Amino acid sequence: MPQSTISKTPKIQNRKKIIKLKLDFSWKNILLYGFLILFTIFIFTSFNQNISQPSSKEVGISYIINAVKASKVQKIEVSDTDITAYEKNQTLQATKESGSSIYTIFRDAGVSLDKTDVVVKDTTTFSNWLNILSSVLPVALMILFFYFLFRQARGAQESIFSIGKSKASLFNKDMPKVTFADVAGVDEAKQELTEIVDFLKHPDKYRSMGARTPKGVLMVGPSGTGKTLLARATAGEAGVPFFSMAGSEFMEMLVGVGASRVRDLFNNAKKSQPAIIFIDEIDAIGRQRGMGLMGGHDEREQTLNQILVEMDGFTPNEQLIVMAATNRPDVLDPALVRPGRFDRKVVLDLPDIDGRKAILSIHAKGKPFDSSVSWDKVAQRTAGFSGADLENMLNESAILAARLNKKVIDMKDIEEAATKVQLGPEKKRLQKDEDKKITAYHEGGHALLMWYMPNIDAVHRVSIVSRGMSLGHTMMEPVEHAHETKTHLLEQISAMLGGRAAEQLIFNEMTTGASNDIEKATQLARTMVVEYGMSSLGPINLNEDRNQYFEAKNISSAMQAKVDTEVKKIVDACYGEALSVLKKNKVKLDLLANELTKKETLDGDEFLALIGPKEKRKSPFETSKN
Ligand code: ADP
Ligand code: ZN
Ligand code: MG
């Protein structure tokens, strides 16, 4: 179904969680399955042994003696306690006591065995083995089974004795060095960390001044902004060992392991100071204590307490800096950020246009780019990308160019890679002509509204090629604004609803594909009311302070109802405007939809060539101030 990305910082949303049934063909599993199969076969065959042959007759031993006496038996087979006598057209089966001999039995009965063929099979050794095997095998299998189970439950490599040891990976001076030069676009953060570097290099300078030395630095920022990288770079700049461990690595199935790993980590680091201890993703353990209603929070609390204890225990002579990174500073325990602990906060933000250019130039090294590539344009186009996204994009562009057997990477490859990073890979989903037409009108609706609204930036690309979860997409040329105006926000909501408006106008029908648009539009409208104070309710923060565990309501339900009314008013007004704009420009919409059905993707220039230049006009929302 048609969906669009028209926000300025498009993120891939609704990533489907695919739960796959995975068959793991590692050697131990093959061994395990092999044993299971053997075991089944074994049990089956030992059952089978006790099933007598169909043509035979179960008799007493005296019956066989009589048969021999009557010379009806040609041959007797004895194996252990089983006696089989072969007559002309049937076999007789009997059992004797073990230990007694067939010859003795017949002699005692006074019957001669001279005329009969007697074969004594010596099966005792075989059956002995079978006996031993059948008693030992299940036990052995059981032991093996538990052994594998145990190993899998507990990270494979470590033995039971090292479970409380920290698994910190250590980077020391010999490792490939990361320095501040490898991190770009985060100049303020680097500035703050320079101080840390200086302290690690010249501790005496600070001590002689009586300054309290820094202990903990908390790095905060969205994922992919280079927190981990910057921590390593700090160690690289200072030339000290770097003990790195992720928050989740402290956790195991056994209680108390986390705390003992913390102790171990700090002890190791103390031995090789000056050093940096880095705890990545600290929110995994540093969540507010007492908040966890789910199980397992005891272990986390203990681990967190141990970290606090270790940090408090630093003597003034210690040259240890604890760095930690998180993208959820809001959930951290307040005790962590008290003075003397993680009292320094370094905030990393998504890079701005200059930052992106600098990051691009770092990661472009070693890749052959066509001389026509304009890094200014790339930096402009990638608003909202994190450092990791940019790195990923350049890598994708290189892969793309290589796949097409190109000598150099050109602008088209970069554009394709950027779209892929934003929206996921292209999917050659087979769309029926009917579906394609609906998608074309839906996306056309978005694009036309963006073109019409004076405050929205130029259309960057319209496409009905499915990517990720969406059937099509419309993107704007992203320009960063310092301020959002109410008019601009209303125009955006209108553009988000442009897809649905086009469906309604052209097909007098609605599709489920607009659900994502509607969700985003509603969300934005609500934010305008409750956060930005852009409604008749006035500049009051009406945000409900909700979280997972309790619901703190500081607004009355009467006010809540008013909020809902205001949200609806905004959405209705924007949708109405979208409909009227499309109605007025139906000729253009038809033209655009037709072209999209044919060419599938139009870039910004092609779009303008088709529709005409963006006109200067007054925003329809400028008058509707309420
Ligand atoms: P985080 O820890 O904040 O999630 P990472 O430090 O793991 O992010 O970043 C992942 C990768 O993205 C880095 O290895 C680097 O290649 C790239 N990267 C991220 N931010 C930057 C930056 N500011 N400068 C250069 N490269 C960056
Ligand atoms: Zn849409
Ligand atoms: Mg990280």
In short:
This protein has helices at 27-49, 61-69, 102-109, 124-153, 187-201, 203-208, 227-238, 257-271, 283-286, 297-312, 353-363, 375-381, 387-403, 411-423, 433-452, 486-496, 498-507, 515-530, 557-584, 586-599, 604-611; strands at residues 56-58, 75-79, 82-86, 91-95, 117-121, 169-171, 216-220, 242-246, 275-280, 320-326, 344-347, 426-427, 459-463, 466-467, 473-476, 545-546, 551-552, 601-603. With 626 residues, the protein is of the alpha/beta class.
Your description of this structure?
47% of the residues lie in helices and 12% in strands. It is α/β, with parallel strands linked by helices. It folds into four domains: 52-121, 2-Layer Sandwich (Signal recognition particle alu RNA binding heterodimer, srp9/1); 169-347, Rossmann fold (3-Layer(aba) Sandwich); 353-422, Helicase, Ruva Protein, domain 3 (Orthogonal Bundle), CATH 1.10.8.60; 430-611, Up-down Bundle (Methane Monooxygenase Hydroxylase, Chain G, domain 1), CATH 1.20.58. Strands 6-8-9-10-7-11 form a six-stranded mixed beta sheet, sandwiched between helices. Strands 1-4-3-2-5 form a five-stranded mixed beta sheet, with no helix packed on it. Residues 1-23 have low confidence and may be disordered. Adenosine-5'-diphosphate binds next to helix 7, helix 11 and helix 13. Adenosine-5'-diphosphate (ADP) binds at residues 183-186, 221, 223-229, 325, 359, 362, 387-388, 391.
